[in-house]
Amino acid sequence: MIGDMLRSERERQNLTIQDIAKGTSIRALYIEAIENGEYDKLPGKVYAKGFIRNYANFLKMDADAIVHRFMEENHPEDVAAAEEAKQQLAEAEVQNKEEVKQKLAMGSEYQEKVSSPSNRSNNLLIALIVLLVAGGAYYLFAMDDSNAPKQPTKAVTQTAKAPASAEKKAEEPKEAQPVKTDGVELVAKFTDKCWTQVVADGKTVYEGTMESGKTETWKGKDKVVITAGNAGAVEMKVNGKDMGKAGNVGQVVEKTFTADGQAADAAAADKKDSK
Among the four 3, 71, 108, 230, which has the fewest Cβ within 10 Å? Predict the structure, then answer.
């Protein structure tokens, strides 16, 4: 069982559950649930995968293999669907290669036809016409450039002094305007370690642990969803607008943003740590 493997390795390295919680920003009660195989106590399948991956990486184990085994043991239907999609992709690639071969063969036949004496003479005539048209266009553009007025080499110095009130207004800093962005642009600054998952337009673009001091930017056409395992360590801006922190320290929070701003947010796990 995955929990037994992780517990054995943790104990082999003389680490406590609190050591793991501190190093991964995963709450101790979730670490204990993973080791006991009580996955129903975790916020959900996505969080379970992220926590297990983070835990395994911290112990310097093969995180991909452990997560795959977790899915095989607890969500075999997802693994089967992924394998089927992989098989379909492989078959599509084979079919695509066959189509390319057929097109190349058709291209060889076309080249043989073009190489015939009659077609070669027609091609030379077409090339000559193209050269004549190109030469005429170059001559016209060259004439236009030679007749164009030249830019003055010296700028006129303005001696009039602006009124004091105008100078004062000019010195006042302009109020920062919101950044105009097509779609959704999320900028996240991390002040502490935080397990994070980001999904843009339904596609997972990041999943892992962010270190303190990191700043990352993610973009989506319709929406961006961020899930933070330590919400108090994430400061966010959406399309240039300051959205503040994602939540409280140690809280697991999911937030959804659209081009108009925050669409919805939910604290995925806000129960106090009993450890």
Answer: 108
Residue 96 vs residues 90, 99, 104, 167, 199: alpha-carbon distances, Å? 10, 5, 12, 67, 30
As assigned by CATH, the class of the 2-74 domain is: mainly alpha
Q: Where does residue 68 rank: exposed (0-12), middle (13-18), buried (19+ CB within 10 A)?
A: middle
Number of Cβ within a 10 Å radius of residue 21: 20
The 3-state secondary structure of 229-249, one letter per residue: CCHHHEEEEECCEEEEECCCC
The torsion angle over the Cα atoms of residues 115, 116, 119 and 123, rounded to 10 degrees, is 30
**CA pair distance 248, 192, nearest whole angstrom:** 12
Contacts of 241 (CB under 8 A, 6+ apart): 178, 261
For the chain, the structural domain boundaries read 2-74, 184-269
226 beta partners: 198, 255
What letters, b where the CB count within 10 A reaches 16 and e where it falls short, cover 202-235? eeeeebebbeeeeeeebbbeebbbbbbbbbbbbb
Least confident range from 6-20, 79-93, 99-113, 147-161: namely: 147-161
Mind listing the pLDDT tens digit for each residue in 102-132?
777 666 555 555 455 555 666 677 767 767 6
